[in-house]
Amino acid sequence: MNRDFVMVDSSVQENQNIVYALAASPGFAQDGICFAARHSGLWHTNDGGMQWQAVQHIPFAPDNFVASAVAVSPNFQTDGTVFVGVPGGILCSRDRGATWTVVTLPVPAPFIATLALSPVFEQDRTAFAATLEDGIFRTVDGGVSWQAWNFGLFDLGVLCIAVSAAYTQDKTVYIGTETGIFLSKNGGRAWQETDFPPNFAPVLSLALSPKFVDDGILFAGTESHGLWYSDNRGKSWQQVLDTDAVNAIWFAADFPKTADICAVSNQNVWHSTNGGQSWLPKIPTATFDATITSATVSGSLTQNAVIFVGLSNEKIVRLPA
Amino acid sequence: MTQRLVFQPHTRLGFQKGINLLVDAIRPTLGPLPRLVAIDPISRGNKQPTLMDNGGLIARRIIELPDRDADMGAMFLRQVIWKQHEEVGDGTATTAVLFQSVYNQGVKYIAAGGNPMRLRHYLETGMKVVLDTLAEMTLPLDSQEAITRLALSICHDKALANALGEIFDTIREHGMLEIRSGNRREMEHEYLQGAFFKLNVNAQTYFPNGQRQIELTDAAIFISNLDFDEPEHLIRIVALAYALKKKTLFILAKRLSPRVVGVLASVNKDPQQFQAVAISSPESDTLDDMALLTGGRAFLQILGDTIASANPSDLGAVRRIWANKDYLGIAGGKGSPLVLREHVSMLRRAIVNTNNLEMRKKLRERIGRLMGGAAILRVGGCTDTEIKLHKENAERTAEAIRSAFVQGIVPGGGAALLACRPILECMAENAENLDEKMAYRILSRALEEPTRAMLENAGYEPGAFLAQMTDGVTGFDVYSGKLLNMAEAGVVDSAGVIQSAVHQAFASVALALTIDVLVHHQQRETSINP
Which of B39, B291, B355, B445 has the highest CB neighbour count under 10 A? Predict the structure, then answer.
C-alpha cells in the first residue's frame, strides 16, 4: 500500500459495513473537517481524518440510523451547513454538525441516494436530494422544506447529481439515473432526457466542467461500462475509460488551463492530465482490501488537496490528490 | 329548387364587400392594445352584448349578412379564420388582414386585366418564399423569460403571462395544464406531482368506511375494465397481492357486484394488515398508459381477458396512489423507465404525424399524464363573464405557447412579416412577366398590413413608423411608443402562429381570386360553427 495512505478503521461492527458518501469541508486544509455517511450513521473528523467520531444525539433520529448521503455547503466555513440523507428524511445542521434539525419527506420513506448544493447556496438557498425511487426533491429555502420536482423525469431511480458552476446564470442541473441522464435547465423544476445510451446505464457519477457554459464538457461514470465523455452538453458520448463502476469524478478547479481530471472506480483512483483523453491509475500497485463505494476531495482538485475514499468494509482511506 | 347565378364583375364585387365587412369587424382586435367588438347576445333573455377581442370567436358569431353575394365572401373568409382559430388558437386577426389586403389588391389588378390563374400560381410561389424566410428567422423558445414575453404578446395580461411563463417553463410543450375557474379575483397556480387520470363522470368508488378519497402507499394495482361479479374474482386478485407480499391493493374495474362489495368490506376489516380499494376504470387507452406506468398489464373486455387468467406479474406496483370521485393520481409507478420513455417517444411521433386536431389533443393529454406532474391554473375575476373571458384568454395563450415550443418564435410586432418583404421586392424586380411581378408586389404590400393595423389600434399613425421598419429587425413597441430591435427587446410571436396565418391567408386568397361565378340556393343555410 502506498505510504501516503492513512487507513482509518471505524469502531463499528463488520456487518454494518458500507460508506455511502463522504463530504470534506471546502476549507479542509484549515479545519480538517470531513463527514462520512455510513450504514452505522453519520461520522465526522476534524483532524484531517486521523480520528473519526460518530455524530450522536441527533433529535428525532434513532441511535442506529443509516446515513445514506452527505453534502456540505460550498460556503461551509461561513455558514456551517451540512445536509445528511437518512431514510425518509433529511438532516440539516447550520453549525458544522453541532446541532441538527430534521425534515421528514412524504411517505413511503424515500431513500436518499445523494445530495448536492447550488454553488451559490448562501444566496439562493437551493439544494437537491436524489432518491432511489422517488426522483428529485428540491429546497429553495436552505433546507427548511423540500418538494418533489419530477416533471419529465421518467426514471425516478436517481443516483447522482451535478450542478453547473454557473448555476446562477444557466440554472443547469444534470442527474444520472438507472436508465440514463436527464437535464434540467430551470433549476431542477423540470427534466428532459439526454442522448446518453440507455444500454450503458446506470449512471453512478457525473461531473460538469467548471467552464461548462462555454465548453459544454461533462463526464459520466457508469456502473459497468466505465467513464464517458461529452463535449456538447450530453448530445453525444464516447467512452474514455473502460473500467468497473465509476463512483466519483472531479475536474481541476482551473480546468481547462490545468487539464487534470480524477475518476474513482471500484478498485482505484484514475488520473488524466489531458482533459480525459487518456487515463492512468493513480496508485499503480495498491490494492484496497474492499470495494470503493464513495469518495470526496477536499475543496477542489489541486496539488494540496486530499482525497478520501470510503470502502465497502466501512474503512476510509486518505490519499493525496 | 330555384337558384340564382351571379357572374363577373358582380361576383368579385359581392365577395369583396363581404370580406371587407368581416375583416373590418375583426381588424380592431389586432395587436397588444386591441379594441373590443360588442355582439348581440344569442340568448333573448340577456340584453347585455358580448364583448370580444378574439378574431376567431367574432367571426364565429357573424353568421349571416343580408347581401347574399357579400355573405358568400364573408363565409368563405369566416371558414379560413375559424380554421386558424381551431388549429393554432391565435393569429386570426393577422390572417384576416393579410387575406383582405391581398384580395383587394388582387381584385384591382384582375379588373385591370391581370390573369387570375397565373396570379394564383405566383401568389402561391411567393407564399412559399415567405414561409421559408420565416423559418430561417425562427429561434427556439428556451427560457422562462422568453415564454413570459411570448405569453404577454398573446394575452396582453401581465399576471397571466407571468403565471403561464413559469408553468410552461416547468411542464414544457406536452405537460398537463388544467385551466379552471377560480373563486377569487386573483389568479392562482399550483403543481401536483404524479400522473393524473380523469375518471368518468359516473365513476363509482369503493373506498372503506364511505371515505370520499383514499391514498395508499406501496400498493399493488390491478388494471382492468372487467366486471367483478363473483366474490371469487376479488379473492383471486387479493391472493395475487398477498403473493407479492403487498399490504395494499388498488383495483380498477368496470363494476363491482353488491356481493363483491360486501367481500371487499370484509377484506378491509383490519386496514393495518391489508387494505383494498376499487374504482370504476377510465377509458381503455388510459388503462394501457397506466399499465406501462406501473409495470402491470391492462385486462380489457375487448381482448377477452378474464380475471381468472391473472398472475402475480400482471399486477402493477406504485409508490403512492390516490383517488377521489374525479381523479386518480399515481406517483412512483414501477413500470420500466425504458419502456415508458419509448412509449412517450412513440406518442410524440404520433403527434407530429397526425393532422387531426382532436387526435393531437388526445395524444398530448396522454403524454402530459405520463410526464410525472400537472399544473393547475385557477383564473379569477369579479363576474362570471370576466372569469369566462380570462379563461378563454388563458386557453388561447396556452395553445399558442405549446405551438411555439414545437415551431419556435420570431421577432414580434409584425417585424418578422416585414422582414420578408425585401426578398419579395427583389423577386418582383426579377419577374419575367407582369402577373408574377404584381403577385410579389401584392404580397409584399400585404405583409405590412398587420403592423399597420396594430399601430392604428394602439392610436399611432402608421405611415411614419413603417418607413423606419425596413431592416427586418426593427419593430414598434406599442407600450413604450418606440421603435426597437424586437428580438433583442424580447418582443416575440409564435413562429407557428405567424406561419399558419400566412399559409391560411395566402393559400385561401389565391384560390378566392379565381372564383368567377356564385350560385345561390333559394333557401339559405346557416350554421353556428363555420
Answer: B291
Integer Cα distance of B231 and B241 in angstroms: 16
Phi, psi torsion values for B22, nearest 5 degrees: -65, -45
ipTM: 0.82
Report whether pLDDT(B39) > 90. no
* Nearest C-alpha in B relative to A191: B170
Instruction: Tell me the sheet residues that pair with A173.
Output: A163, A184
The model carries a pTM of 0.79
**How confident is the model over B215-270, as pLDDT tens digits?**
999 999 999 999 999 999 999 999 999 999 999 999 999 999 999 999 999 988 88
> Do A151 and B175 make contact, defined as CB atoms within 8 angstroms?
yes
Residue A5 predicted with pLDDT over 60: no
Which SS3 state, helix, strand or coil, does residue A242 take? coil
Partners of residue B338 in chain A, C-beta under 8 Å: 179, 198
Pairwise CB contact (< 8 Å): B170 & A198: no
List phi, psi (to 5°) of B218.
45, 55
- For B46, B79, B393, the CA distances from B528, given in Å and listed in that order, are 18, 12, 21
Phi, psi angles (nearest 5°) of residue B514? -95, 0
Q: Express each pLDDT in A229-274 by its tens digit.
A: 999 999 999 999 998 899 999 999 889 888 999 999 988 888 999 9
> Regarding beta strands B373-379 and B188-193, do their DSSP bridges make them parallel or antiparallel, or are they unpaired?
antiparallel
Backbone angles phi, psi at A303, to 5 degrees: -65, -30
Q: Tell me the shortest Cα–Cα distance from B341 to chain A, in angstroms.
A: 7
What DSSP designation does B413 have? T
Distance from C-alpha of B19 to C-alpha of A157, rounded to nearest angstrom: 59
Best B275, B338, B344 residue to mutate vs chain A (most A CBs within 10 Å): B338
Cell of B323: 383517488
